[in-house]
């Protein structure tokens, strides 16, 4: 029962932080809220007993991605006057309608469907050895393709962001 | 044990917030952050379905690892593009960079 109370606290924190990301007036506040939201998702992985993913989430999202985003925000500051720029476009009301409709449909389907095997047994903890065996044996080729993808993205990002001569 | 529907509803809320952010925001970095929210919602869905419905309980975690990998690559490339855009146009608002819009 204590787990469920904690789950609801973390779920509320994730929703509040994500709303902060998309509704905040300042881009820096959005980035801080994003860190909170990503950490909350990592906690969700702990609730789902996949601790390996929680570690990966904290390391990659909480560490690398948010630092990248904060650095990009720092490099692309436009408002020298300190006044907040207009953050939303004129299409924001339509975007709200689309998002609310999508949310209603998704929640309706998720709650209305009778999922098979949805019993209240506690899921067993998944050992990291099993995950690594699955990742390196059954999903070996996709793993190698993913590493090539990361290499290509690395080289591409360097080429794109490089200061060329005469610029 | 929290029922599966709770995870699905949480991920639906997260995904919808991300959709709103992608559609409504003007700053390219903020749009990217909203995309991250959507990717996280998808990862929660993968892992929740695998843990509750898959007897092996692992495949969803593997897919979440791949989602995180692709998201990291995407963030690196997209932020490089944003910085290049800012250097050329002195803006990071997507509606001021509409030269390719027909």
Task: Give an overview in words.
- The complex is a heterodimer of chains A (167) and B (102).
- Chain A is mainly alpha-helical.
- Helices cover 73% and strands 0% of the residues of chain A.
- Chain A has helices at 2-23, 27-47, 51-75, 92-112, 128-138, 140-161.
- The mean pLDDT of chain A is 83.
- Chain B is mainly alpha-helical.
- Chain B has three helices and no strands.
- Chain B has helices at residues 4-24, 28-53, 59-89.
- In chain B, helix 2 packs antiparallel against helix 3 (59-89).
- Chain B is elongated and about 50 Å long.
- At the A-B interface, helix 1, helix 2, helix 3, helix 4 and helix 5 of A face helix 1, helix 2 and helix 3 of B.
Multimerization state? heterodimer
Note the overall shape of chain B: elongated
Structural class of chain B: mainly alpha
| Unreliable residue runs of chain A | none
Strand content of chain A: under 5%
Number of extended strands of chain A: 0
Q: Which two protein chains have the largest interface (Cβ within 8 Å of the partner's Cβ), and how many residues from each?
A: A-B, 86 and 72 residues
Distance between the termini of chain B: 52 Å
- How many angstroms separate the termini of chain A? 62 Å
**Gyration radius of chain B, in Å:** 17 Å
Give the DSSP E fraction of chain B (strand runs of 2 or more residues). under 5%
Q: From the alpha-carbon coordinates, what is the Rg of chain A to the nearest angstrom?
A: 21 Å
Number of strands of chain B: 0
Helical fraction of chain A: over 70%
Q: The biggest beta sheet of chain A, please? A: none
- Sketch the major β-sheet of chain B: none
Which terms summarize this structure?
heterodimer; A: 167 residues; mainly alpha; 6 helices; 73% helix; B: 102 residues; 0% strand
Task: Give the SSE layout.
The complex is a heterodimer of chains A (167) and B (102).
Chain A: H1 2-23, H2 27-47, H3 51-75, H4 92-112, H5 128-138, H6 140-161
Chain B: H1 4-24, H2 28-53, H3 59-89
Helix pairs in contact in B: 1-2, 2-3
